[in-house]
Design a protein that fits this description.
The complex is a heterodimer of chains A (333) and B (246).
Chain A: H1 2-6, H2 11-27, H3 32-55, H4 63-80, H5 87-113, H6 118-138, E1 148-149, H7 151-158, H8 160-191, H9 193-203, H10 205-210, H11 215-239, E2 244-245, H12 247-250, H13 253-266, H14 273-291, H15 296-310, H16 314-322, H17 326-331
Antiparallel strand pairs in A: 1-2
Chain B: E1 2-13, E2 16-27, E3 31-35, H1 42-50, E4 57-62, E5 65-66, H2 72-75, E6 80-83, H3 95-105, H4 114-128, H5 143-155, E7 161-165, H6 173-190, E8 193-198, H7 202-208, E9 211-216, E10 219-225, H8 226-231, H9 233-240
Parallel strand pairs in B: 3-8, 3-9, 6-7, 7-8
Antiparallel strand pairs in B: 1-2, 1-4, 4-5, 9-10
Classes of the chains: A mainly alpha (333), B alpha/beta (246).
Chain lengths: 333, 246
């Protein structure tokens, strides 16, 4: 039993980091918005890491899952508000619908694209995001390009006071829990056969196959898990915070790029990496836009190139390999 | 019982006939050498046996079950393991984790928990003499150590049939003898049939194989006891060319 619990010690630094973030936002006035943004980035990284980090496959259409998750919540609130259901139940149904939609999309994409390897997979997924956006707009699904504005319905089901505290506070707390849950699932996978199978296929897919690993099954599993967390994140950090959704905004490829940067910056396949990646990325983006407004990307791009060239294994990857202390070695992974 | 049976297996790549109408039988626990010059179809034959390629013609039977179209990951749990000519370790994982993967997805994979697999890995790593390296990432091992690790990884799968692709190429003759002795011992204890493919390390073949199958341009030209095969004029011709006239 003790041994089983010890396996989950590496969650301590991750949860500690989230707790510190929460306490700063709670106690230092004026920092909650920043903390919310950082939590969004950490959660995005933590979710994407389950796929990118553990399988080594780069999905350029990842934000599509965040997008359909946002739609899941938006649909639930806008369509169910007219029925006499308790507000919190509609929100929970929204999260469930977000998971359902992102899972369905990931199964559809994964079943086709995950049969491709490496760069071919990456290319195939670029089309998914754009294609899905134009499908929604062109076929006028879910109101097409007019999007869904559900501000009034949100107020209606919860009351305006509760709706505003949900948007400004509780949505971020939910994001924090999603990030923590994603970290837990990452570690759970790492400690089970799933993690071994994923490591094997990431390092050498052919060798993994002849050793009895059904690589397609494990890739799809990681893909679906990662996608459902993205869906949840879209529902909480997007739909609940800004109660409207337009296709060009949620299917914006630069969120995918941000997710990739966060994971690589922190250390792909490490548990603590997305926390570091999310914090470094979020903080530098925030401060650069204050110090040199408008030029932040121009400065940011070369900095990221330098970091990724100098530390290909990411911050946590490098740190991990330098640790000498045996106890520390066991929790920094 | 016949462990593996190939019936008239043919595999083409475009116009190239890589394996041509090969039939063979391997009994459990047998030690067999597959010999043939470069390009004779040895690796392709291995790939047909473990499922990387499906043959165009012919069938493959394992323990009387037709596995001709079974994908590789379904063959491994039946008891087919292999090592590669150029070792293919999972570089970022430790040696112990590499070997544990074998235990987790091999013959007893379904019943093996992660902890059990790790213990099993430790035992096998000790057997092949890599104990001092078990916590290191596999990527930093020397080529010979990587080969040993691959063998450990395959043995951890508890195979009934172990296919070894040029396992001893590049090894010191002394090491080859140690390895042959080790493999013979393990194979006997665990009743593993070993099919070792060699290009020219006859030392290994003579030392271990009960039977030798010689391939030439994709076809089987000889299938006999080791000593007999080495005397076979067709084999001599394929390796050394025509004897001088007169």
């Amino acid at each position: 039993m003790r041994h089983q619990i010890q396996k989950y010690y590496p969650l301590i630094p991750v949860l500690a980091a989230y707790l510190v973030l929460f306490l700063i936002g709670q106690n230092v006035s004026g920092t909650w918005q920043l903390v919310a943004t950082l939590l969004f980035y950490c959660c995005l990284g933590q979710a994407f890491n389950i796929f990118l980090g553990m399988t080594g496959y780069v999905d350029f259409g990842y934000v599509a899952f965040v997008g359909v998750g946002t739609y899941g919540m938006a649909l639930s609130i806008s369509r169910l508000a007219q029925y006499d259901l308790p507000g919190p139940m509609i929100i929970i149904l929204g999260f469930l619908l977000a998971i359902l939609l992102s899972t369905l999309l990931s199964v559809a994409v994964g079943a086709v694209a995950l049969r491709l390897r490496g760069a071919y997979f990456a290319i195939a997924t670029i089309g998914v995001n754009e294609g899905f956006r134009y499908l929604i707009e062109g076929a006028r699904i879910w109101n097409g390009s007019e999007g869904i504005i559900f501000f009034s319905q949100l107020n209606e089901i919860l009351g305006s006071e509760a709706a505003s505290s949900l948007s400004n506070y509780w949505a971020d707390i939910i994001t924090l829990f999603i990030a923590a849950l994603a970290a837990f699932i990452t570690l759970f996978y790492m400690r089970s056969k799933i993690g071994f199978a994923l490591t094997a296929l990431r390092e050498d897919e052919d060798a993994a196959k002849v050793m009895g690993i059904n690589v397609t099954k494990f890739k799809i599993l990681a893909f679906i898990t990662s996608a459902s967390f993205a869906g949840l994140l879209g529902a909480s950090s997007w739909a609940l915070k800004t109660p409207y959704v337009f296709p060009p905004e949620v299917f914006e490829i630069h969120y995918t790029i941000e997710a990739i940067i966060i994971v690589l910056l922190g250390g792909a396949g490490t548990l603590l990496g997305p926390v570091f990646g999310g914090l470094i990325y979020g903080l530098s983006k925030y401060f650069l836009s204050i110090i040199v407004p408008g030029f932040q990307l121009l400065i940011f791009a070369p900095v990221i190139i330098i970091i990724i060239v100098a530390f290909p294994e990411g911050v946590v990857g490098v740190w991990k390999s330098k640790i000498k202390n045996e106890h520390l070695k066991k929790i920094i992974i | 019982m016949t462990l593996l049976r190939l019936e008239n297996v043919t595999k083409r790549f475009g116009g190239i006939l890589a394996v041509n109408q090969v039939s063979l039988e391997i009994e459990s626990g047998q030690f067999i050498g597959i010999v043939g010059p470069n390009g004779s179809g040895k690796t392709t034959l291995f790939n047909v046996i473990n499922g990387v390629f499906a043959p165009e013609e012919g069938s493959v039977f394992f323990e009387d079950q037709d596995i001709t179209t079974l994908p590789p990951f379904k063959r491994a749990p039946l008891g087919i393991a292999r090592t590669f000519q150029i070792p293919r370790p999972f570089n970022s994982a430790t040696v112990k984790e590499n070997v544990a993967v074998g235990a987790m997805f091999g013959t007893f994979g379904k019943e093996t928990k992660v902890d059990q697999a790790m213990l099993e890995a430790e035992k096998i790593i000790d057997l092949v003499g890599l104990k001092q390296h078990q916590e290191k990432p596999a990527g930093i091992l020397t080529p010979v150590e990587k080969k040993m690790m691959e063998i450990a990884r395959a043995l951890a799968m508890h195979p009934k049939l172990l296919l070894m692709d040029e396992a001893m190429a590049g090894m010191h003759p002394g090491d080859i003898d140690t390895m042959v002795t080790f493999l013979k011992k393990v194979a006997k204890e665990e009743n593993i049939a070993i099919v070792a493919m060699v290009e020219h390390i006859m030392r290994a073949v003579v030392g271990m194989a009960e039977k030798v199958i010689v391939l030439h341009q994709g076809a089987k030209i000889c299938d006999a006891e080791t000593q007999e095969a080495l005397q076979d004029p067709k084999v001599v011709e394929c390796y050394l060319g025509h004897p001088p006239e007169g």
